[in-house]
Amino acid sequence: MSIWKKKSIALLLAEASETEKGLKRTLTAWSLIAIGIGAVIGSGLFVSTASAIANNAGSSVTIGFIIAAIGCGLSGLCYAELSSSIPISGSAYTYTYATIGELLAWIIGWDLILEYAVGAATVGIAWSEYLNNLLVNVFHTAPIPYSFSHSPFQVSELGERGIINLPAIFIVAIISLLLIKGTQESAFVNGIIVVVKVSIVIMIIIFGWNFINPSNHTPYIPEPSIFTDENGVSHNFGGINGILGAAGTVFFAFIGFDAVSTTAQETINPKRNLPIGILGTLAICTILYILFAHVLTGVATVEDFRTGGKEASVAFTIEKYMTGYKWLADFVTVAILAGFSSVILVMLLGQSRVFYAMSNDGLLPKSLGKLHPKFKTPYKANIIILIIVGLFAGFVPGKIVGDMTSIGTLFAFILVCIAVIVLRKTEPNMIREFKTPFVPIVPILGILVCFAMIYGLGWTNWLRLGIWLGLGLLIYFLYGRKKSKLNN
Asked: If DSSP codes are grouped into helix, strand and coil, which group holds residue 312?
């Protein structure tokens, strides 16, 4: 039983063609762009941006966004080639299985499980925080008690300890049930939410531009220093290290475009529509991100993000500095709640499709790949994911899991870039509807930029990733290797 055995391209394409027995093809190019934007514009933009401004880069967070966008763009070109050449569920897991071998495919699949589970939990926790903000500042009612909206590891300023984060569990459960109902229905709901939250981002950019204070952008790149946050954690602030740290933090804001490639078996004409969906998502979101960050850092000071705004920094900034736009702050809070919901939807969608692909290969229990007889969705995988993500969201603080999502995704991007180089050598005659330009230069640059952002995240996150991958290898050698269909 070889741990390096590869899944043949012919076998993958045969699986992709068996649409009658599998997932329904209902998604168009615009549906994919909406799914991508639904995942990308959310918690990362409204929460991670403020964190990066306060802890790492100040106004130069825009440069961090540009670095993150370059890394995503280079990786996105590689994703576009692989998703159009191998249009089957599983994303980076499937591409690695076809190019490098089973062991690394398992590692990347296990890594994607971390990315989507922890990412959905992080956004669920942020959803809970903004729900309380909505109740207090918009509806002027009492918030959900601290003990029932925070994890047991959190203590309020008044000394009250959290017990369970019920709102976070609630939203994860509702979205999971929607995904079981069907991909087309989920995509329709997501499309409505995307229109709302993109409109909000554009309004903040347009209205906020008139309130920019040039002194907040001076100096644009702060002098290098060490900043210690309220939890006693030290961060490199300013200079190149601060910008790299910001890039690694705001990279969380780009997570989700790769989830587009997990829907390959549910996409109409995937060889054409998947590259459009992936690259279209990146282009739209990058432009909005850079403009949004420029306005936000121009309107408010770094100290505002450190002390006043925190999780709800966008609404705080509007209320404090943008006179006459209180209505926009209220609208932002409502839109962010809706936006977070669409991010959770796409994260859970992506994870269930990775479970589906790994189950069909025998690396995970067969039941996870079982489709609902009526809805044709992997409903058992969705139920298991609901339990896993619900536990994360209900009992773990959001700050611990956010950077874990970023480092897991960066690792996946690196393997996707490697897969393009390997596949060009091993399958030179394969039909490619979309070709990554300047191979191997573009994939190598993608690898280097992703490694730079991993470096910026610090050793504690490297350690967490190492522990997670160690646990995954244990499961593979005790279960996956023995049950693998390819090895049997």
From this structure: helix
Q: Which two tokens stand for residue 396?
A: 């773990």
| Distance in Å from the first CA to the final CA of the chain | 8
Report which secondary-structure segment, H or E, holds 56. none
Question: What's the average model confidence in pLDDT over 149-170?
Answer: 87
Show the DSSP H helices in 232-370 as ranges: 239-250, 270-299, 302-303, 313-321, 326-360
Please state the three-class secondary structure of 156-183 as a single string.
CCCCCECCCEHHHHHHHHHHHHHHHHCH
No. of H helices and E strands in the chain? 19, 2
Tokens linked to 217 = 């952008």
Residues 330-343 have a mean pLDDT of 81
| Residue 110 Cα distances to 28, 87, 88, 248, 294, angstroms | 28, 20, 18, 21, 36
* Cα separation, 82 vs 80, whole angstroms: 6
Angle, to 10 degrees, between the axis of helix 326-360 and the axis of helix 92-99? 30
Host H or E run for residue 471: helix 459-475
> Average pLDDT, stretch 38-45?
73
Q: Are the C-beta atoms of 259 and 349 separated by less than 8 Å? A: yes
Burial class (CB in 10 A: 0-12, 13-18, 19+), 153: exposed
> 441-457 and 239-250 helices cross at what angle (nearest 10)?
100
Report pLDDT digits (tens) over 205-222: 999 999 999 999 999 999
